Amino acid sequence: MYYYQKSGDSLFCIGYENPTTFIIYQKPELLLTFPISQGYTVYDYFEGKGNYCNYLNIHLRGKTTITADASGKLILPDGDTIQNVLRTYTHKYIHQQTQPQKKLDNSSYIDTIPFTINKDSIDYLIANDSVHIEMEIWRWYASGYRYPIFETIKSTIYKLGTPYEHFSTSFAYMPSEQYYDLPYDAENQRQREIKQQGKDWKEERDNKDTPNILIDYQIQVYNNDLQVYYELKESSHISIILYNIQGEQLSAIQKYNQSSGVYNEIIKIGDYPKGKYILQIVVGNKKYGEKVIKK
User: Fold this and answer.
1) To the nearest whole number, what is the mean pLDDT of the chain?
2) What stretch of H or E contains 191?
């Protein structure tokens, strides 16, 4: 369970609990400010107390920096695309102290007097203590959806300046899975409806202006080459673009006013690591997506 609070233009985490750990923040942790656009950076400090397995007292202090570091088109695993996606990068420095617990009372972690955080002290601890934790979190947000579509978390423990990976994990929450019915989320529902109306209008306009161009194609990986065979039924512009699984464009072939006929294009992938890739083929106003696996 994570507990949140919105104050002014900012969203904070005020505490969390799981089967082993209970934390209450005396100075809540900043998660995001609104509105946010690419290039925007904000930072804040946090401090919290809690316990681990009702055995150890925990005292957390740290600093969070949040940057909207990228925006653009996101290609989903099934080849579909989402426009105007914003990625945020969160970098947290955490200093953690533990000691044997003497009193099993969570209310003791709640301050009854106004709390003042010592930012200089936290900066000093992060810079000089022999052990600290760093967390990196990447989140991909799309307009009209409450939750990130993708989220990747990496935790690293630094001991005497040497990094040791603590854990790393990723989550996917596809847009098709986020059509939930929340009575208090009318704003996102309205955004999706506006976007769908615009999409319907654009498709109707494109269908009138540009007829569907028929294409047959097949792909194969052979001797570190990605070979794309295709047949155009009539002349058209065609683009063949290869992306890695992070959405970075690796290669692009563009043909303008390509005549109807049978063609073969080769993309060199020998220098790319083994794994999954996405091949996008754009013909006229039609887009096709294929998964490519390099073994």
Assistant:
1) 84
2) helix 186-209
Collect all residues with Cβ–Cβ distance below 8 Å to 279 and sequence separation of at least 6. 219, 226, 228, 240, 241, 242, 243, 289, 290, 291, 292
DSSP label at residue 54: T
How far apart (Å, rounded) are the C-alpha atoms in residues 164 and 231? Answer: 52
What separation, in Å, do the N-terminal and C-terminal C-alpha atoms of the chain show?
40
Neighbours of 117 (CB within 10 A): 14
φ, ψ dihedrals at 284, nearest 5°: 60, -120
Q: Do residues 249 and 48 lie in contact, with contact meaning Cβ atoms separated by under 8 Å?
A: no
Residues 120-158 pLDDT 10s = 888 888 888 888 899 999 999 998 888 899 999 999 999
Half-sphere CA count of 292, side-chain side, radius 13 A: 30
**Residue 285, C-beta contacts closer than 8 angstroms, at least 6 positions apart:** 206, 207, 210, 212
- Do 141 and 86 form a contact (C-beta atoms < 8 A)? yes
The model carries a pTM of 0.63
Distance CA 147, CA 66 (A): 17
- For the chain, list residues with pLDDT below 70: 102-116, 179-184, 196-213
Q: Which SS3 state, helix, strand or coil, does residue 228 take?
A: strand
Give the dihedral sign, CA 111/117/118/123: positive
